[in-house]
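hey m, so remember when u said the tokens were messed up on ur end? i reran from scratch. heres the input so u can diff it against urs
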Amino acid sequence: MAKRFSLSVGIAFAIACIFVVAGLAQTNPKGKSYTLKGTIEQINEFAESIRVRQEKIAGFSDARIATYKVDDPAILSKLEVGDKIVATIYEKDDALHDIQVVRIDDRVHQVK
């Protein structure tokens, strides 16, 4: 009887550990993601960054002008000062990710 109970406890513990590990694996180390909307004011290819006049991001930051690294430096040659952009930013990462340019017709276009 004690062996059966001990085996059941061991199996339950192993299953619990699997769920904990799976949950940790799904947690993004960059933290929560937010959508940044703004206008490019400067492009610095040497520093692999852009300066953006951004709108307020609820729960993250006020409207401001800030300089951000970009996750893919190749995109810099495809951006222009004055472009309106939408990008993803994470609370624990200063880079902009998945930058998209919003064209005059208000449709979002992926920059490739």
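this time it looks ok to me. The chain is about 20% helix and 40% strand. if urs says something different then somethings off w ur setup not the seq
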